[in-house]
Write a structure and sequence with these properties.
alpha+beta, three-stranded antiparallel beta sheet, elongated
C-alpha cells in the first residue's frame, strides 16, 4: 500500500493484544464477539497515519462437511509424519504400501464415506 500523502510505503499494525506480525485477516478470524480490533497505518517517510477500528458484533461460523474436515486433518497428519522420515527406503516402503492399499479399494468415491476408519 502506498501513502495517500506522499506515495511512500505504509506499514500496518493490528491491535490490541495482537503479535506485531498479525495480519488483519488473522486478527478477524481470532476475534471474539464484542471485541474491537484497531488497525493503524503509518507512513514513516512523511508522518501520515490513520487509525481504523472494527467492532465484532456477532460471529457466524459455517462448518464444512464433517468427512471433508476429517480428510483434511488426516492429510495434514500424514504429511507431517512423512516429512520427519529421513530414510529413503522407509519412504519407498510407505509409497508401495499406499499404492497396494489403493489397488485393494473397490472405488475411489467410496473413500469419502469413512476416512477415519471409525
Amino acid at each position: 500500500m502506498e501513502c495517500p500523502a506522499c506515495g511512500g510505503p505504509v506499514t500496518m499494525e493490528v491491535g490490541p493484544n495482537q503479535p506485531l506480525s498479525a495480519s488483519v485477516a488473522d486478527a478477524l478470524l481470532a476475534a471474539d464477539e464484542n471485541e474491537k480490533i484497531a488497525i493503524t497505518r503509518n507512513c514513516w517517510a512523511c508522518g501520515w497515519n490513520e487509525e481504523r477500528s472494527v467492532s465484532i458484533d456477532s460471529i457466524e461460523i459455517t462448518e464444512g462437511e464433517t468427512h471433508v474436515v476429517k480428510r483434511a486433518v488426516l492429510l495434514n497428519e500424514i504429511t507431517d509424519e512423512l516429512s520427519t522420515i529421513d530414510s529413503l527406503a522407509t519412504l519407498k516402503d510407505v509409497l508401495a504400501e499406499v499404492r497396494r492399499q489403493r489397488r485393494l479399494e473397490p472405488t475411489t468415491t467410496e473413500t469419502d464415506r469413512d476416512t477415519t476408519g471409525e
